[in-house]
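Let us work through a complete example step by step.
Step 1: write down the sequence.
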Amino acid sequence: RLEVWDPTQGARVASIPLEFDFDYSAVSPEGRSIAINPIGVPVFRVLDAREGRTVAEFSLESSAVSIAWSANSEWVAVGSDDNAIYLWSLRSGGPRLRLTGHQNYVHGVAFLSGQRFLASSCWDGTTRLWEVSTGREILRLGVSGHLATGSAGTQMAVQSYDSKALDLFELVQSQVVRTLDLPATNRLISPFDVSFSPDGSRLAAAAWDGAHVLDVDSGVPVATFPERFARTAVFVDSGRALLVSGNTSCRLWSLESPGSEASTPVAPGHGWNVAASSESGALVALARGEEVWVIPRGGATRVLRRPPQQFQRVALSPNGRWLAASGRLELGFAIWDLDTGESPAWAPASHALGCEVIFNPDGAALVVGDSEQYAAYSTHDGRVLWRIPRHDTATLHGLGAFTADGRFFACALSRTDIGLHRASTGERLARLEHPNPKQVLALAFSRDGTHLAVASPAHEVRVWDLKRLGAGIREAGLPWDLDVRR
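Step 2: predict the structure and record it as C-alpha cells.
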C-alpha cells in the first residue's frame, strides 16, 4: 500500500493499494502524479496521486535505482543498474533519450535549471551534468553521493557516501572561464608556464615552440619570442620586459620594442630548466643540472649546488631573500637564505620524488607540493603550517600560486581540478572543475586577484574570472570570501 500525504497540511491525501512491492518512488512537483518502479520488473509506472490508477508505463532494459521529475512535471528521468539514464516525456509517451557513459549503477538523478540540465550520480565515483535537449555530457565532477537541488534550480549539493563531506555546486554563466588559444603550428604542443603582467592586461605563456604574449581581454597575440622548449615566461621591469628561459638560452626580451635585437642574455650557455625572478626583477635564479645560478643585476653571480641533485624547479621569494629548488632525486627540496648563503637547519634531508616549491608573497612560508599533498613550511623554523591532500595525480608534482596580497592559494588538487584555499590555514574555499577537464600544467593569479590563468594541453590557457564567479555565488545566497585586497 502506498500512503500519500500533504506535508503542508499534515493530512493523508490517499491510500493506494498496490499489487507489487517497490523500491523507489517520486512525486511530481505539481503533486498530481507518482513515478514508481515495481521490484524485479524492468518497468516503471506513473500513477495518479489521488486515485492510484496507472497513467503511463514505460519499459526499461534493466531495473530502476533512482527517479526524478523535471520542474514542469513533464519529464521523468530514471537511473538504472545497467549504468544508463533514461528520459521520458509524459506528453509524447515515448522514450526521450538513453544517456550512457557511467561505469556503474546510477544511484541518483536530479533536474537543474527547469528541465534544461540533468545531474546524475553514480557508484563509479562521478557526478555528471547532461544537456537534456541533446543528451550531451557537459560536465564531470569527481564526487558522488546523495543529490539535492535548490529551489531556484541552479544549485546542487552532493553528500558523499564514504566521507562527511558535503559539496555545493552552482550553475554559472560560461563567461566565468574563457579559453585563450596560443598561436602554434602544432596543437599538441603544451604550455609549461603562465604569468600575468602587473596591470593584468597581458598574459605570457612558455611552450615548446617559444614564449607567447596575449591580450587578456581579446585573446589576440601581442608577441612571440623564439625559444626552443621554453620553460619560463615571467614579466619583469613593471611589465616592460619578459624573462624567458629554455633549452637554448635565458634572455630578457623587451616588450616595448619586440625583436631579436631587443633581447639581453641573462646567463651564458643553454639547457636551463626554469627561471624565477624577485618581484622587482633585480634578482634572477636559474636551474640547470646540479647548479642553481643566482644573478643580481649589476652584481656577481652566485652558483649554489647540492650534488647529486638534478634541479628542475626553482623559486625566489618576492623580497629576494629566500631561494628554494627541487629536482629529480629524492634528496628533498633545497632552501637557502640568500642573506647568508646558508641553508636553514630545518631543511629536510629527503622528500618525495619530484615536488614544486612556491613562496608566499612575504617569504614567511614555503609551500612544497608533491604527488600526495601540499605542505606549507615556516621559513623561520620549518614548522608545518598546514597540509592539503591531493588525489588522482598519477605521480605528478603539485602546482600552485598565491594571490599578491598573500591571503589565498590556488593549487592543482588532482590532474584536472583546482582548489582555492585560505593561505593562512589551508582551508578550502572553492573547487574549480572545468566542463572539459584537462591536465593542469601551470597556474598564475593576476595581481589584483580577479583572474586565475591555468595552462592546459593543446596549446591553450584557461582564464577564470573569479570576480564574476563570486558574484554568481553570492547571488545564490552562498558565502564567498575570496576577494583580494588591492
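Step 3: interpret the result. The chain is about 0% helix and 50% strand.
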